[in-house]
Design a protein that fits this description.
Elements: H1 2-24, E1 30-38, E2 41-49, H2 51-72, H3 80-87, E3 89-90, H4 95-110, H5 120-127, H6 135-145, E4 154-157, E5 160-163, H7 176-190, E6 196-200, E7 203-207, E8 216-222, E9 225-235, E10 239-244, E11 271-278, H8 281-294, H9 296-305, E12 310-315, E13 320-322, E14 330-333
Antiparallel strand pairs: 1-2, 2-6, 3-5, 4-5, 6-7, 7-10, 8-9, 9-14, 10-11, 11-12, 12-13
Length: 334
């Protein structure tokens, strides 16, 4: 009888061990993906997770991105940046807007003025039909508007932001998407996601590799034919952003593109596209615009001076420039 008890006890222990092992086994990972219309583009969040956690994490990440939009939009009347442009000051700015503007001023200095969020009056000028005017009228109106441009004309005191010149306006289009992507990744990571990619209209960042430890594969479009691939990159825990003057124009003839040089008031014309690989999407986003305006020579010098930043530049003559460390990510080139 005692032997029977011992055998039964042993079988019970073994069963409990097996059940415990099964309960501790990792849940199978499923690819979950959702796309939403946001920030004047389409944002796609891709995660590998169990279905319940993944769906909750994606919803939370989009909610965080919406918070950034409420701070950064210059088109939504309820957004802080809109109110700042309208009133010339904002007395109780959120942490998001303060961070965005502070970082923008830092990138303005880093790029020697090539990245400048106070460029909105010039964009308004060209959008209003300046391209229809004679060269003399264009120059005269640009000279007047340039008085409103300059990140040194932004004041910050505590959580108060103000313009020192009446009529100034900012645009955060060159940094807000990258910042929103980074914030989304932080939310995903905090909810236990280890494999993710957030893509906001080409501004993208990754969390870890894919579940099989293979890096994410990112294709760069050929600016002369966006249906073709210019290069392919392998990245993990990195951000990739591209700025280009080959899709959005102010005039039907497509001679006045949307990236304006803050120092001249005219379209930046030294590059066709610039792709930056960096540690975070905020940095990649701002540098992509700044390097585009700086041009291949000054832009490449800046990139080479920075740690953990690489770039691919297509200059105005269709010559492709590669930074010294880009080969670590490049798996295919044209």
């Amino acid at each position: 009888m005692r032997r029977c008890y011992k055998v039964t006890a042993c079988l019970l222990i073994l069963l409990l061990v097996l059940l415990g092992t099964a309960s501790c086994a990792p849940k199978p990972l499923t690819k979950l993906e959702e796309t939403r219309d946001m920030m004047d583009t389409f944002v796609t969040i891709t995660v590998y997770s169990d279905e319940k956690t993944g769906e909750e994490a994606i919803s939370a990440a989009f909610a965080r991105m919406e918070e950034v939009v409420k701070a950064a939009s210059i088109f939504d009347e309820q957004a802080e940046a809109f109110q700042l442009n309208r009133d010339g000051h904002l007395d109780a700015a959120s942490d998001d807007l303060l961070k965005l503007i502070t970082m923008s001023i830092d990138y303005n200095r880093l790029t020697d003025g090539a990245f400048d969020i106070t460029i909105q009056p010039l964009l308004d000028l060209w959008a209003g039909g300046l391209w229809k005017e004679s060269a003399e009228v264009q120059q005269s109106r640009i000279d007047e508007t340039m008085e409103l441009v300059g990140s040194d004309k932004i004041g910050i005191e505590g959580n108060k932001i103000y313009f020192t010149v009446a009529g100034m306006k900012i645009t955060l289009g060159g940094i807000a998407k990258g910042y929103a992507v980074d914030e989304a990744l932080k939310v995903l990571s905090s909810m236990g996601i280890k494999h993710a990619l957030v893509n906001a209209g080409g501004d993208m960042a990754t969390l870890g590799p894919k579940p099989d430890q293979v890096p994410w594969n990112i294709a760069l479009a050929n600016p002369d034919d966006t249906s073709q691939c210019l290069a392919k990159l392998n990245v993990s825990d990195k951000a990739v952003c591209t700025s280009g003057n080959y899709e959005r124009y102010f005039n039907p003839e497509k001679t006045v593109a949307h990236i304006i040089d803050p120092k001249t008031g005219y379209t930046a014309n030294k590059c066709i596209s610039v792709t930056i690989i960096a540690e975070n999407c905020t940095q990649a986003d701002a540098l992509a615009t700044g390097v585009f305006v700086m041009g291949p020579d000054d832009g490449m010098r800046l990139v080479e001076s920075l740690d953990d930043v690489e770039c691919l530049i297509v200059d105005n003559n269709r010559v492709i420039h590669y930074s010294s460390g880009l080969s670590n990510y490049l798996i295919q080139r044209q």
